[in-house]
Design a protein that fits this description.
CATH superfamily of the domain at 22-116: Winged helix-like DNA-binding domain superfamily/Winged helix DNA-binding domain
CATH class of the domain at 22-116: Mainly Alpha
Structural class: mainly alpha
Pfam families: MarR_2 (PF12802)
Radius of gyration: 19 Å
Shape: globular
Order of helices and strands: HHHEHHEEHH
Largest sheet: 3 strands, antiparallel
Protein name: DNA-binding transcriptional regulator, MarR family
Distance between the termini: 74 Å
GO molecular function: DNA binding; DNA-binding transcription factor activity
Domain HTH marR-type: 1-148
Helix content: 55-70%
Keywords: DNA-binding
Number of strands: 3
Length: 169
């Protein structure tokens, strides 16, 4: 029995997920300190980045929730708070009155562009700089494959045809 338990503890799957969790935790701690200097939480930064990298710098609220670690009510609270701070704006969907979009304002883009240089330095120092270019390419492929398996909605709204939702002229 003791041998079986020992084998389970030494299983490389446990090691892999443990290393991933430890790396993420360590990176998050470094990123959180830097983001706090720009008056952003990790979630707020993620929301700004998702929106800034989306077509028209906006996403449907449900797609934003699917792309982040937030529930639909959680994303509503974050967007509400960021809208009060002037970082985001919300607009109704022209084709579905039950839906709305969140978009980055010019103040939000300014905050993001002020934050990004230091954030990229930390990413380079503590993450991508630890890998050779070919290793980084392979890592991105592996992580994307895992992400797509466990979170198939992570790119929700990314392929949206914005012309089909534009108001009639």
């Amino acid at each position: 029995m003791l041998g079986l338990v020992s084998e389970l503890f030494d299983d490389p799957r446990i090691t892999a997920i443990g290393l991933l969790a430890e790396a993420f935790s360590g990176l998050s701690a470094r990123f959180d300190a830097q983001l706090a200097g720009h008056k952003l939480s990790g979630v707020e930064f993620e929301v700004l980045m998702r929106l800034a990298r989306s077509s028209g710098h906006e996403l449907r609220m449900t797609d934003l929730a699917a792309q982040t670690s937030l529930s639909t009510s959680g994303v509503t609270r974050v967007v509400d708070r960021m809208e009060r701070e002037g970082l985001l704006r919300r607009r109704a969907c022209p084709t579905d009155r039950r839906s709305s979009y969140a978009g980055v304002t010019s103040a939000g883009m300014t905050r993001l562009t002020e934050t990004l240089p230091g954030h990229l330095e930390l990413i380079e120092q503590w993450f991508t700089g630890q890998l050779e270019p070919a290793e980084l390419d392979a890592f991105l492929d592996y992580v994307r494959r895992i992400r797509d398996a466990v979170n198939p909605c992570a790119t929700a709204g990314a392929d949206r045809d914005r012309e089909s939702e534009a108001p009639a002229a």
